[in-house]
Amino acid sequence: MIAASRQPQSGRVAWITGSTSGIGWAIARQLASEGAAIALHGSKAASATTEAQLAELHAMGVAARYYALDLADGEAIAPLARRIAAELGEIDILVNNAGIQHVQSVLQFPPEKWNAMLAVNLSAPFHTIQACAPAMLARGWGRIINMASVSALVGVANKPAYVASKHGLLGLTKSVALELATTPVTCNAICPGWVLTPLVQAQIDALALREGLDESAARARLLGAKQPSQAFVTVEQIAALTSFLASENAAQVRGAQWNMDGGFTAA
Ligand code: NAD
Fold first, then answer.
1. Which pLDDT belongs to residue 1?
2. Which pLDDT tens digit goes with each residue over 2-59?
3. What is the DSSP string of the chain?
4. Which residues, judged by CB distance below 6 Å to any ligand atom, belong to the binding site of ligand 1?
5. How far, in Å, is the centroid of ligand 1 from the Cα of 60?
6. Which atom in ligand 1 lies closest to the alpha carbon of residue 44?
7. What is the pLDDT of residues 190-228, one digit of tens each?
8. 97 C-alpha to center of ligand 1: Å?
9. Nearest atom of ligand 1 to the alpha carbon of 23
């Protein structure tokens, strides 16, 4: 008789912030396919879409629940982490994926947009790590994966808050990785180039409107400017890298800034 092989993440719980669309949803599906229970999370109330997403995850044979919280509310993050732990189990894999973008010159950049972007892209990961790491340490295993960006590695004009928040997130990643270096809990960052998701589609739409381009010309212009491969990174590729960083074989990957960017930062 052949014993059924154990899925690599079965018995584990993953909280992926901002997992209702784009990269986060691909990561939720990937980790569910490996047996992890999924805390699906977004800023809006549950909807027909999130119900359908939960049904898809349940069909993969894992526990999954949807949690709505605007991560700009830093004080509400620890209570949410406690609720996830009570309902799904202690969080073993934390993916700080939620992020927002606003493109405007630093000279006109609205201070409230600056504050919102720093709160969601940088302060929220600080709060989630503070809320989740103690139980990971107590249980003797944990993975913290922060979705940074090529904007964590190089400057980009007209994205002052995004670039500052992602550089900060990389700094946070390295500090946490060093603090936890002798423990079984790792912390790493992924730095994607252009990935075709709703966040980037909004930038394509704005470019098309501004320059009078059709959709495909706007996409080509966006890639042509920065991404030498002239191809988008896919959400599945980012999910596969996340899967590796969450795996046993990544136990000694610590404080990495792992770019997947079609050559964006090679120049
Ligand atoms: P997306 O817009 O498809 O998804 C963003 C997710 O974040 C959504 O689930 C949304 O609900 C959630 N979110 C946004 N604001 C929130 C808030 N205030 N509170 C809680 N949740 C909130 O975007 P995406 O492209 O999949 O981006 C995911 C991550 O990847 C982001 O951190 C982004 O900066 C990063 N990233 C994206 C690209 C790209 O090209 N798409 C490149 C580099 C880095």
1. 47
2. 445 679 999 999 999 999 999 999 999 999 999 999 999 999 999 999 999 999 999 9
3. -PPPPPPTTTT-EEEETT-SSHHHHHHHHHHHHTT-EEEEEESS---HHHHHHHHHHHHTT--EEEEE--TT-GGGHHHHHHHHHHHH-S-SEEEE---------TTT--HHHHHHHHIIIIIHHHHHHHHHHHHHHHHT-EEEEEE--GGGTS--TT-HHHHHHHHHHHHHHHHHHHHTTTSSEEEEEEEE--B-SHHHHHHHHHHHHHHT--HHHHHHHHHHHH-TT-SPBPHHHHHHHHHHHTSGGGTT--S-EEEESTTTTT-
4. 18-24, 42-43, 70-72, 97-100, 120, 147, 149, 192, 194-195, 197-200
5. 24
6. 11
7. 999 999 999 899 999 999 999 999 999 999 999 997 999
8. 6
9. 26
Distance 223 CA to ligand 1 centre (A): 19
Catalogue the active-site residues.
Answer: 162
The predicted model scores a pTM of: 0.97
